[in-house]
């Protein structure tokens, strides 16, 4: 009986690599993805964070417009300027509702943008961990078709192989 030997190539594991990737992504979003050589993720990171920043700025601008209109009405003793094409038809209650609506959306946009920034850091960290993961044929999971001995029908199964 001949014993078959396999040679495995083991690379050096850098335990600080995930921390370095996370640190780089915290300094500049997308830099951790570049450190991990996952360049295709960088536009995704900037699109996600950029979209969040855009909605934060837009909602803040609209909130300030409604706020300024409300302040103007308070200074005029509650009188509505009907010649104003934007706010002339709105009641004071509608202006207050618009102000609250855009304030809520602005705050939500800030939270979502912060979450996407944190997700960028977590992605760089996890990806750096997975780059060091040993993937070889000693551990494999393969789909398999087996014949059921009782019904003689084909059954779909998974075969887990582990070799020492």
From TrEMBL:
Q: Where is the DUF5683 domain?
A: 15-164
* Record's protein name: DUF5683 domain-containing protein
Q: What InterPro entries does the database record attribute to this sequence?
A: DUF5683 (IPR043738)
